[in-house]
Model the fold of this input.
Amino acid sequence: MEWVNAIVQGILLGGLYALFAAGLSLMFGIMRFVNLAHGDFIVAAAFGTLLFVDATGVNPLWALLPIVPIMMVAGYVGQRLVLNRLSGKDILPSILVTFGLSIILQNLMLEQFSADSQRVSAGTLDTSAISLGAGLTVGTVPFLLFVSAIVVIAVLNWIFAKTAIGRQLRATSDDPETVGLMGLDKRHLFGIAMALASAVVAVAGVLLAIKTNFDPAAGPIRLLFAFEAVIIGGLGSLWGTLLGGVILGVAQGLGAQIDPGMQILAGHIVFLVILVLRPQGLFPKKRGS
Amino acid sequence: MTHLLEARSLDAFYGDFQALFDVDFHLDQGESAALIGANGAGKTTFLKVLTGLLPVPGQALSLEGVDLSNLGTHQIAALGISMSPEGRRLFPSLSVRENLQIGASVKRSGPWTLDRVQELFPILAEKAGTPSTLLSGGQQQMVAIGRALMANPKLLLLDEVSLGLAPVIVRDIYETLPRIREQGTSVILVEQDIGQAVAVSDRLYCLQEGRISLEGKSSELGRDAISAAYFGRAKEAS
Done:
């Protein structure tokens, strides 16, 4: 029973990793752009939640209302003003600049909020649980996280499959040069893609703030899990990213069950094994011509 | 009268390499011009310049008197130049219908709609939901042309339509050209097959090593003059 429980908790944890990873996957999939500051953006959204709750005193879930649009606008503007200047054949400039951005963000947050570990309370939600029967109980917050991950990925998939902007983003991902011939401004589409990714970052940040402790230096470890989930899942499908997150979460859950010190290591080992056996990920991007 | 498209002593560079030298080119409304020349003569380069893919800042290039030389690719597309590029460059993640729809992103109104394009190439209606990668070469070429038409261009650029296609397919595709031109669309086509180029164009330009080596009415140019310009024999003889 303990093992089943470890797997179930691992699956739910995978939802959080998938949320971390979805934004990263979007950015890399469309702009061929590696954002090393991704984890710090998530932590920044978590601190935004803290500020919002301190100021209003309402349930932290309400923080989604201001933080999602703020992050989207910031994402679009940042892409147009800074990141578009880096997009090109070479991936190195984007890595260097976002690495710098990561350090700047961490230090700004350190300056503003100190190095103390923070937590946002969601009131009774924090301690409530849902019984799944057969002695299995899951916390409401992890469950909510997993459902959010599914909803976010379903919405993103709908946007990509059914809307004109989604079509344009897929085309941009295929061939950004030819998209210009269609009268579309690549810089604008990259901005839109960044805004979408930032919306996911905002959701991840708010839920992170409710789910766990965070501090200004918590970003890089989030980034690492996000990268692992993206690579396990492959770049072909956001559901693959969810599966990648779940595999990582379950590996960590089972690792912790063997020995609490094994939790993080078990995740990394499973990641490495998959990287060796299937470097393109479980759902690679299909390319034809 | 201003020409629809006009380029005067145009030079183009890839980095330090000069690909076009002193090219004078003009095209009138409704006219069709063929661009011929050996591989590497600069035909595709010229089309890249027209669409803004290869920028030529500050040079004399205009569409209906509007300066194109400082505009980006998407701005030029919005003014009404659209291209079926060399190698077709369809979007592999998009279905046939989506590839056509994205051609209309530029939001120019005109005769061409999804229905009209599918009427022109009926096979594309049949294959609407198919991923573009699963089509035959000829069908992919039809999608590329249809996608360009969806923008309702004033000027349609066709780069190497017949490349890698069976002659019967090439004939089918060129048979649609009069129906495209009767909408008033001007056409510039790059073609390896000189016979084909002469047959479907009003005027002919021959490029040789980045320079215009011959220009004239397609119906009046003799085979000898064309092959001399194409292979540069006239130059060698002098």
Strands of chain A lie at 129-133, 136-139. Chain A has a mean pLDDT of 91. The first helix of chain A runs from residue 2 to 31.
